[in-house]
Design brief:
The structure holds two protein chains of two kinds. By secondary structure, chain A is mainly α. Chain A has ten helices and three strands; from the N terminus they run αααβααβααααβα. Chain A is 40% helix and 2% strand. The chains are: A mainly alpha, B mainly alpha. The interface between A and B is large, with 84 and 99 residues.
């Protein structure tokens, strides 16, 4: 096929013999052709000025409210990896232990999620927390459970678990795996109905983390997140951004979501 | 994940974006508008691929959250694009759940076979692609491929960033993007003859192209 090559003028397309190198080249070239077209087709079009106004209004509202205490959760930390990776406290080891305990289950977030992260004072500290355990202490870049008194297991237990479940739920969406039945029931109970789970999870803040490292819920460590060992690759070592008043953090309250400063986080 | 780190995909305005975001975090509204203008096209394009016509609505939801959480963000321009894409994606998924509709991508290739043929011989014949056509094609991809392609190509994220947005392993996302692009290329008639199948036989006018 393709004698048409004549008019073709594309060198290197020496027909046939798709050996590895050649086909790689072709692929690269094809992608290089397709990508700009796709990009232009989908990005194109004038922006709607009203939409921009709405965004600006939202900005004014958000910043007028004096929300100056914006804590950077792990999901908000998108610094280039080199920066993030700069410090890894020994806590990581705890993470490993916890990660193994949570195999297959929904995060045992109940255990002292509080995570005391020493930090407000140390903004750049990247704590790589064990993804598994964390269920991502919402808003808490805090450290692994062990740092704080596990105490909270009770009152906050359900809140934390729910978050973990929500996370699992969201992860499940992405990966098409079944969510743990028990976790699902808890979510349904918390949300007040099967149909409400999605809305509940989306409204319900906490660190629903999107980063790959986190699969506490849906997956066992080893999944993308590979648990603890601090998600090496993909990023994150949570930062404890500026944490004014370190509100909840650690100090024994282990309250996960509380984040008075910035109102709801999600 | 010890894989080879690819250079980040820096887009044209990432430097300006980073600066604008920093100023916006300090309260500068004009800077926020700048950031909006830089990011919105890619964001909207991505959302179109996910939710089609509802993209603008979902984008509005996303910007509400972006504005609200702006001060939490830390990172550079590329990071901001990743962060906003993640937020947008969540809003899109919520939107889809509320509607109990499946995300658009994920159709079968059958859909494409019915489209009028384009010049199948070479790249030069493809000068542009309409938005509708692009969306139709994206929709023929399995969802993971569609998203991987959209994030890489439309939002301009590199492998690790796209993987983070999707909550998947970088290798998987890379593969998905690869396959998705390859498929799209084939459907657009771009690519080596050897890649194409039976359709080639029917290929009409050649020759004059160029």
């Amino acid at each position: 096929m393709g004698e048409r090559l004549n008019g073709d003028g594309v060198p290197g397309r020496r027909r046939a013999h798709p050996d590895g190198a050649m086909s790689d080249l072709r692929e690269v070239r094809d992608a290089a052709t397709v990508e700009p077209l796709l990009a232009a087709a989908l990005r194109g079009g004038a922006l709607d000025p009203e939409a921009e106004q709405r965004a600006l209004t939202a900005f004014r509202a958000a910043h007028g409210a004096g929300a100056h205490h914006a804590r950077t959760r792990r999901r908000d930390d998108w610094r280039p990896t080199a920066e993030r990776r700069s410090r890894r406290p020994a806590r990581v080891t705890f993470g490993v232990v916890f990660a193994s305990l949570t195999l297959g289950g929904v995060a045992v977030a109940a255990i002292g999620s509080a995570g005391s992260s020493t930090d407000g004072a140390d903004p750049s500290q990247g704590t790589a927390h064990p993804s598994a355990v964390t269920a991502d202490q919402p808003g808490d870049e805090a450290s692994p459970a062990l740092s704080g008194p596990p105490a909270q297991a009770d009152s906050s237990a359900s809140a934390q678990e729910t978050e973990a479940h929500c996370r699992a739920y969201e992860q499940v969406e992405d990966r098409g795996r079944a969510i743990d039945a028990r976790a699902w029931q808890q979510l349904v109970a918390a949300a007040g109905g099967k149909d409400k789970v999605a809305a509940y999870c989306s409204e319900h803040p906490p660190g629903t983390s999107t980063a790959p490292g986190r699969s506490a819920g849906a997956g066992k460590p080893g999944g993308t997140g590979t648990g603890a060992a601090g998600n090496t690759g993909a990023s994150h070592s949570g930062t404890s951004g500026d944490n004014p008043g370190g509100t909840n953090k650690g100090a024994g309250t282990g309250r996960t979501s509380a984040d008075p400063g910035s109102g709801k986080h999600k | 994940m010890g894989q080879v780190r690819q250079p980040r995909r820096v887009q044209a305005y990432d430097g300006e974006l980073e600066a604008a975001v920093a100023r916006a975090q300090d309260g500068d509204e004009t800077a926020f508008a700048v950031a909006y203008r830089i990011v919105q096209p890619g964001l909207l394009g991505y959302l179109r691929g996910l939710v089609g016509d509802d993209a603008e609505d979902v984008a509005s939801d996303a910007w509400l959250e972006i504005a609200r959480d702006l001060r939490r963000f830390r990172g550079d321009g590329a990071g901001f694009r990743g962060w906003t894409a993640t937020i947008a994606r969540h809003r899109a998924l919520d939107h889809l759940r509320r509607q109990r509709v499946r995300p658009r991508a994920g159709g079968t290739e059958q859909d494409v076979l019915d489209l009028p043929a384009t010049h199948s011989t070479h790249e030069q014949a493809l000068e542009s692609l309409s938005t509708e056509r692009a969306l139709e094609l994206i929709r023929t991809l399995p969802r993971d491929q569609a998203e991987a392609v959209l994030l890489r190509v439309v939002v301009g994220l590199d492998g690790p960033a796209a993987a983070r947005v999707l909550g998947k392993r970088p290798g998987a996302v890379r593969t998905a993007a690869h396959r998705g692009l390859k498929r799209l290329a084939r459907q657009l008639g771009v690519g080596s003859e050897t890649d194409r199948g039976v359709t080639d036989a029917a290929c009409p006018t050649l020759g004059e192209s160029k």
